[in-house]
Structure formats: C-alpha cells, structure tokens
Amino acid sequence: MTATLIDGKAFAATVRGKVAEHVARLKNDHGITPGLAVVLVGEDPASQVYVRSKGKMTVEVGMHSYEYKLDAATEEADLLALIDKLNNDPEVHGILVQLPLPKHLDEDLVINSIDPAKDVDGFHISNVGLLGTGQKSMVPCTPLGCLMMLRDHHGSLSGMDAVVIGRSNIVGKPMAQLLLGDSCTVTIAHSRTKDLPDVVKRADIVVAAVGRPEMVPGDWIKPGATVIDVGINRIDAPEKGEGKTRLVGDCHFDSCAEVAGAITPVPGGVGPMTIACLLANTVTACCRANG
Ligand code: GUN
Q1: Among 51, 52, 79, 96, residue to substitute to test ligand 1 (most atoms within 8 Å of Cβ)
Q2: Per residue in 32-42, pLDDT tens?
Q3: N or C: which end of the chain has fewer CB atoms below 10 A?
Q4: Pocket of ligand 1 (CB under 6 A)
Q5: Is 6 annotated as a binding residue?
Q6: Can you give the pLDDT at residue 108?
Q7: 3-state secondary structure string, the chain?
Q8: What confidence tens digit (pLDDT) does each residue in 57-112 have?
C-alpha cells in the first residue's frame, strides 16, 4: 500500500471532543442542553445498529437523546403527529427520521414535515434549496464528513477535478454541491454513465457512494488521487470461517490503495464522521434556535 490512510475514526473522535466542549459551554454558561430526537420505524437490522450508535454518542458528548421506536405498521398520520410534537418541543433541537422508511410511508412527505431548523440531516427541501444556492443551511452529515476530511488532507480543493459516483439525495447530490462550493470541477457519475473507468481516471478526488461492494478497482484511479469511500457493504467472508462476513466499501481497497495518494478505509473512514457531523449539526441547530 502506498496511499496515506485518512483516519476517519480518529478525526471523528476529535470532532466529537469539540462538540462535547461546546455542549459543556452551552450548559454552564446558558443552562441549555442540546437534544436530538431519533425516530426509527420498523426493525431493519442495519438501521437499528445505526440508531443505537447515534443514541450512545449523543449521550457521550453530553446531549439529551430521545429515541422513538415505532412499529413497522405505524400509520403515516401517527408518524406525522409525532414529528409535529417534536417540532414544537423546545427541548428538542434536532430531529432525525431514520431512512429507509417502510414502503407504505411517503418519505418525502415525512421528511418535509420536519421543521427545517431542526432538520439535522439536511434532507428537507428548504435545506436542499439553501445548500444548492450557497446559503446557510443544514448540511447532510455524510457529505459534510467527507468534505471535512478532504479539506483536512488537502487544505484548499480549489480547481481540483472531483468525480462523485452515485446520485442519491442523501450523499451523491449534496456531495457534488459541497465540492462545487469549494470550487472543484465536479462530475456526477451513475449507473448510466458511459466509460465510467475513464471518467473516474480523470479525477483528483473520487467519492464513491453507490452501495456496490468493491465496484471501483485500483486501475480506475489516477495515480495520487484521493479516494473517499462512502460504501458500507457486508459480504460473505468464507476465509474467516463458515457463515462469517466482513465489511467492505464501494472501492476495492487493496488495489486502490496501491495507486491512490490517500484513501479512507472501511470501516473507520466515512462512517464515524457521519455521526460526528450529526452531533455537530445538532449543536448548530441548538445555537441558532437560541440566538
Ligand atoms: N439512512 C442511511 N443514512 C442515513 C442518514 O444519513 N440519515 C438518515 N435519516 N437515514 C439514513
């Protein structure tokens, strides 16, 4: 391996430390404790793991954590009523509804019913519009974490060629907006992109967010490029024993690390930064709510 490892786990611990200091000041100087409400509908195992981890870290940095676990068959009206209650609760500064939602619930309707000022995911249509027009908004946590690591590694990103693979509303599109905001030349590639290997090969920065295990091989990467791997995919690992699995990213780590200048590992790269940014967004929401 020749690439520098971008240690998201260590970086996230530093960010959480700063969040904890901020929370302590809000408590001591202003008597305010930021609060984050997380709503989980149904029993999706991956979502349960994420929600548990978010709750634990929220408490660790000194904030209040409110968890709402609703039955998979919850009616839309009941979920909207809960969101309305949280919107009007002054102790709740951030609201996150874990996605994906069960099929019978209208995800757009649910997300857009969250008060944009409490939308710590940055998914509400007003926050999407504010980000797209370069105005102050809530910024989606995963792309924000990626941007922080890129800025930390490179300093200025101005003029760099960036390729984002994946066009989701959660990662791909907001990531492209953020890179554009930092004056990168941005390409969004996706499943219909022609000559994807050639498109990726032009990039100084590759952000892979497609959800396909080890899809990007090292020979797609320009020598010295920075690779940010957003994917978290569980695959079979018979080499570890029968029935065993392991986590891999959207990039083939070993071959990409031979060519890249810097790369994030999976696990321990983007994942921890996402939660750290969620906590930071909650503090931001709390500060804005209290002037
Ligand atoms: N599901 C996967 N990633 C996310 C995220 O960042 N926020 C929410 N609310 N749900 C998710």
Answers
A1: 96
A2: 999 999 999 99
A3: C
A4: 96-99, 121, 141-142, 170
A5: no
A6: 98
A7: CCCEECCHHHHHHHHHHHHHHHHHHHHHHHCCCCEEEEEEECCCHHHHHHHHHHHHHHHHCCCEEEEEEECCCCCHHHHHHHHHHHHCCCCCCEEEECCCCCCCCCHHHHHCCCCHHHECCCCCHHHHHHHHCCCCCCCCHHHHHHHHHHHHHHCCCCCCEEEEECCCCCCHHHHHHHHHHCCCEEEEECCCCCCHHHHHHCCCEEEECCCCCCCECHHHCCCCCEEEECCCEEEECHHHCCCCEEEECCECHHHHHHHCCEECCCCCCHHHHHHHHHHHHHHHHHHHHCC
A8: 999 999 999 999 999 999 999 999 999 999 999 999 999 999 999 999 999 999 99
- Provide mean pLDDT across the span 224-234: 97
Domains for the chain: give ranges and CATH numbers. 31-118 (3.40.50.10860), 141-271 (3.40.50.720)
Which residues are known catalytic residues?
Answer: 54, 98, 121
What pTM value is reported for the model?
0.97
pLDDT-based confidence at residue 1 (cuts at 50, 70, 90): confident
| CA-closest residue to ligand 1 atom 11 | 99
166: annotated binding-site residue? yes
In the reported structure, the alpha carbon of residue 209 is separated from the centroid of ligand 1 by a whole-number distance in angstroms of: 13
